[in-house]
Amino acid sequence: MWLDNPKTRSLPYNPPRIHKYPLSAPDGKLQSIVDSLSTLPNGSFSPDPSGKPIHDLYDAQKLPVTTTSPDSSRSILEILHTPGHTSDSICLYYPPDCSLFTADTVLGHGSSVFEVLGIYMASLRKIIAFGENGEKYGPVYPGHGPVVSNGLGQVTTYLKHRVARETQILEVIQKPPPSNRYWTTWSIVSSIYADYPRDLWEAAARSVDMHLHKLESDGLVEGQGGEGKHTEWNFIG
């Protein structure tokens, strides 16, 4: 690609560094990428000091972007480790434009998909705190959807939505269950989403189930058996 581009053909090739936030456990897909990189000709990329193809990122790390900026000390990308969507999710902060690149953690529209809700909500709080009450970053550049000019407002809305849903679940589960001894994930959904079309309930059940597991880890509810949307729950406060 470098040689095929007339704009770069006459320029010396500067092997890029490949960066990634490290995973806490081995991953087959990542290993296949590493194996593929290892087959490339020498000089295709710059390995890390130990010889690994991928340079590990770390939280609060600052990577230089260019030295041609009038203020090269600000021309950096700052790494924010924001797990939740995946364990290695990050955001990138670019000071010259006061911009935050959020990938799949905060989208331009709709809701993000996440693996562990409690960890995801903690990351949203981290991004909000990083914003310094709107003084640090303005626009958010998501991985999907349009650019959000009021980035801090968007992140705050994400968190408020999750907190409001959590409050709804706690209010419901403290009432007498409609049948049997305990509330189930499905009966909670039936209560909260009673005014919504039923074809939305299955997706809602997955979200409510994640909230319930977070509340269980918080010591507020306790699972009593069952599987999936039929899992039974008890409020223990």
Strand arrangement, major sheet: 3-4-5-6-7
Shape: elongated
As a whole number of angstroms, the C-alpha radius of gyration is 23 Å
Residue stretches low in confidence (pLDDT < 50, at least 5 long) are: none
Cα end-to-end separation: 60 Å
Number of strands: 10
Q: What is the top-level CATH class of the largest domain?
A: Alpha Beta
Summed up, the helix count is: 5
* Secondary-structure content class: alpha+beta
Mean pLDDT: 90
Biggest pleated-sheet summary: 5 strands, mixed
CATH architecture of the largest domain: 4-Layer Sandwich
Q: What would your notes on this structure say?
A:
The chain has helices at 28-38, 117-130, 151-173, 185-192, 201-217; strands at 18-20, 54-56, 62-64, 76-81, 90-94, 99-103, 140-142, 183-184, 221-225, 232-235. With 237 residues, the protein is of the alpha+beta class. It is elongated, with a radius of gyration of 23 Å. Helix content is 31%, strand content 16%. The protein has a 5-stranded mixed β-sheet, with helices on one face.
Describe the secondary structure blueprint for this structure.
Elements: E1 18-20, H1 28-38, E2 54-56, E3 62-64, E4 76-81, E5 90-94, E6 99-103, H2 117-130, E7 140-142, H3 151-173, E8 183-184, H4 185-192, H5 201-217, E9 221-225, E10 232-235
Helix pairs in contact: 2-3, 3-5, 4-5
Domain Metallo-beta-lactamase: 74-116
InterPro entries: LACTB2_WH (IPR041516), Metallo-B-lactamas (IPR001279), RibonucZ/Hydroxyglut_hydro (IPR036866), Sec-metab_biosynth-thioest (IPR050662), WH-like_DNA-bd_sf (IPR036388)
Domain LACTB2 winged helix: 184-226
